[in-house]
Amino acid sequence: MADPITPVLTKRWLSPNSWQIGTYEALEGYTAVRKALAGTPEQLVQVVKDSGLRGRGGAGFPAGIKWSFMPPNFDKPHYLVINADEGEPGTCKDIPLMMADPHSLIEGCIIASYAMRSNHCFIYVRGEALHCIRRLNAAVREAEAAGYLGENILGSGFDLKITVHAGAGAYICGEETALLDSLEGRRGQPRLKPPFPAAAGLYAAPTTVNNVETIASAPFIVNGGSSWFREMGREKSPGPKIYSISGHVEKPGQYECPLGTTLRELLDMAGGMKDGIPLKFWTPGGSSTPMFTAEHLDVPLDFEGAAEAGSMLGTTAVQVFNETVSVPWAVMKWTQFYEHESCGKCTPCREGTYWLAQILERMVEGHGTEEDIDTLLDVCDNILGRSFCALGDGAVSPIQSGIKYFRDEFLALCEANKRELVGAQA
Ligand code: NAD
Ligand code: SF4
């Protein structure tokens, strides 16, 4: 059982006018930036490294190590880019964070920019979240007026400008290099890696792309220290995490817990299964992570625990489905999403997601055959590991895991079709 924690990232969310600078400052806001600017960038990178903070966008790459990849020279400007394009199905943590506590992200941006010697930070927000873009812009103006942004911040000699940039609603622009293309004003498509953004990112200059929740954690680490941060969560996955729970639960929403919390514990907090109808399947971190079943209620939801049990932590978007939901139908809906969002750059994903969606639609409409199940798995094998970016791999997760745990349901659809065909011939 994971120990409950005193809220960290969400601690101000329920305060009146939590998004305003006055509330933020009254609740310890902008105290970490003073400490940070009094030290050296190297000290900051070390504190974040020591904390063990791992990227909260889904991949879990150690944040301090990523920061340390930024080169020491200044032939070109350095950039910090915040990935606020939260688009993974079921994921709803970054937008609530930016709505409730935008200054924690801004303070994190100042700290991270100072650590990486960047004087310009971009926050790339998904275009549909207009309300969030407005709130962030208002918070940036408040921070500028208070002297936390602009030139010579708090007399430190450090300058920083923050630009809030609206995306245009493409899922692929959450992939960091497609995001950079989009930010440069081009069609968002993934770039070949390496070079990683620290070597050649925005405008081919050294860039670090970090998720909202990752950067919003920085002020707490600076104030609390790396040992305090490590007291929460698990050894290789320390710290608090915002789990977004949706679907058939009594109280869907965001729950901040230590990394390693199980679905059983999350369900307790979320009031249990809606109307008491039993759990059938769930995703630990969005639809790109292989689904789990009721057998996995006690899997610790941290980077290692989810992987050891055969899935991934991903974005901690816990989508819960009860017994009334057809797995082939849900898998079809997710696959239609990936087909629609495939950027078309590489053949396995562009063609494969098209065929996967066609086959699943045929099966769900009652015209599938048993061979279709093998064809689905075959197409998945030809996408997995053969696509240009993680979207292709993510697209096959629901299909492979759906067939692994619920093959009988796919078969039943085909059997029903077979009976109808035999009946028609008789
Ligand atoms: P990745 O593992 O390729 O990279 C993660 C980060 O680490 C990147 O910033 C990358 O530049 C850096 N990195 C990795 N190896 C490096 C190296 N050798 N040198 C320097 N930097 C290195 O993963 P990814 O493709 O960026 O992201 C995949 C994840 O995104 C999935 O796990 C999925 O859960 C998540 N995702 C999130 C959303 C969302 O809405 N938040 C949407 C879709 C997918
Ligand atoms: Fe585009 Fe899909 Fe290829 Fe990624 S895997 S580059 S989204 S076509």
UniProtKB/TrEMBL annotation:
Name of protein: NADH-quinone oxidoreductase subunit F
Database matches in NCBIfam families: nuoF_fam, PRK13596.1
Q: What PANTHER family does the record point to?
A: NADH DEHYDROGENASE [UBIQUINONE] FLAVOPROTEIN 1, MITOCHONDRIAL, NADH-UBIQUINONE OXIDOREDUCTASE FLAVOPROTEIN 1 NDUFV1
Position of the signal peptide = none
User: Record's InterPro entries?
Assistant: ComplexI_51kDa_subunit, NADH-UbQ_OxRdtase_51kDa_CS, NADH-UbQ_OxRdtase_suF, Nuo51_FMN-bd, Nuo51_FMN-bd_sf, Nuop51_4Fe4S-bd, Nuop51_4Fe4S-bd_sf, Soluble_ligand-bd
Q: Which domain of life is it from?
A: Bacteria
Upper lineage = Bacteria, Bacillati, Actinomycetota, Actinomycetes, Pseudonocardiales
Homology family? Belongs to the complex I 51 kDa subunit family.
Coiled-coil-forming residues are none
Q: What is its EC number?
A: 7.1.1.-
An example GO biological process term is: cellular respiration
Q: What's its job?
A: NDH-1 shuttles electrons from NADH, via FMN and iron-sulfur (Fe-S) centers, to quinones in the respiratory chain.
Report the gene name. Answer: nuoF
Q: Which cofactor does it need?
A: FMN; [4Fe-4S] cluster
Show the Pfam families listed in the entry.
Complex1_51K (PF01512), NADH_4Fe-4S (PF10589), SLBB (PF10531)
Organism expressing this protein natively: Amycolatopsis eburnea
Catalytic reactions of this protein: a quinone + NADH + 5 H(+)(in) = a quinol + NAD(+) + 4 H(+)(out)
GO molecular function term, any single one: 4 iron, 4 sulfur cluster binding
What residue stretches are annotated with the NADH-ubiquinone oxidoreductase 51kDa subunit iron-sulphur binding domain?
Answer: 328-373
Keyword list, A-Z: 4Fe-4S, Flavoprotein, FMN, Iron, Iron-sulfur, Metal-binding, NAD, Oxidoreductase, Quinone, Translocase
